[in-house]
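Summary for the lay section of the report: proteins are chains of building blocks that fold into shapes. Here we show the chain for Nodulation protein NfeD and then a coded description of the shape we predicted for it.
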Amino acid sequence: MSGTRTVWGRTRLLLSMFCILASMILSLIPAQSHAQTYQKAVWIPVEKEIERGLESFLRRAFAEAEAQQADLVILEINTPGGRIDSAGAIGQLIRQSPLHVVAYIDNQAFSAGTYIALNANEIVMTPGSSMGAATPIDLAGNAAEVKLISGWSNQMKAAADLNNRNPDVARAMVEIDTEFPGLKPKGTVLSLDSKRAKDLGYADRIVNNKNELLSLYGISADTMQTIEPTVGENVARWVTSPVVMSMLLVIGLVGIVVELFAPGFGVAGTISLCAFSLYFFGHYVAGFANWLHIGLFLLGILLMILEIFLPGGIVGAIGFISIVSGLVMAAYDTEQGLASLGIAVLITAIVAFLLIKKYGLKGLLNRFILGDEQSNERGYVAPKDQRDLVGKKGIALTPFRPAGVAKIEGTRVDAVSAGGFIQAGMPVVVVLVEGTRVVVQEEEPNSQGRSV
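The coded shape description reads as follows.
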């Protein structure tokens, strides 16, 4: 009996020790549910449409965060979506960053915004926020072609795989014609609220507000720095959007055409100048345009003006190519630049047709033809024939450098010297008359009666 008691006692002791050890291990689990603490954080807003201007801003913001030796970047994402290529570039920027990146969704992160969030190390959402609905659409708002949808679906799947998230959820957000049992029926796309995102592993945590988020990572609001877009970057984001880019080109080209039909340099020319300046400024700040593109555009304008006075076609053709090259090369995408320019040229051609129909070509040609009538009543006096002055002699009343005034047979005559400098008071002789141009040279000794 004593042996049995001893065994039982040892068993109880082992069980007690096991329970104590298990309790210690379990006590550590809640601590692991809290996020790692960080020393320095940078807050970066990702708002409005995802486009090239935002991409340029985020490149600067991440570089600045690294320069400040931050170890945590919080992206506050609130976007309806945007360009797939821009989202892809931003996703690559996040993946290549050595910093820990948290995507904080306080409102919405649809389409391209979801892709950006999936590339972050963690996703944190607030109650009432949502993500998903990532089917790409065209400018008309319809679903894009199958090839584009397939490629984008693979990009979303790859982003989900980065942090071991269910790739079918990402695909269900994109593929409208595919059924995903338990996620969505065919003919719809998947979007997630914060609770379902957490259940499906697409949200790592849910917090009530910004302060709770900062507390989660051990960051004080006083020490955290926010990197905001500059005024120039905001202008660049606005200008580089496809719709605004097309509008600026339309305004610029139409302004030139209207200005050609108006006397002097007026409102249309000023508006055109402002439109083109905004176009190049926005693309320059965004990092897409440089001085070569601006120079090509200005050279093209100059050559087109010269073509008016030096007809022949070659100068004008080179000018047109320079203008197109400058505008398209300054755009963030050649295809988009050509499309925007094509729309602008079409609208400008329609406006030019309407103006010519209303005012005729005379309205345009009058801009380059002298319109003042030269009549005796308005004080015009035709120059008299001075060819009889050839061979006549006189004296220089002023120095000739080479223009000057000479006194020829008692009459003051404006003239130019045939060669070098002629001092005042020197004898001169008229050697040539071309219209109103009188040419004299210093009279040499023993040159009586000689003329050229």
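Put simply, here is one thing we learned. Confidence is low (pLDDT under 50) at residues 25-34, 447-452.
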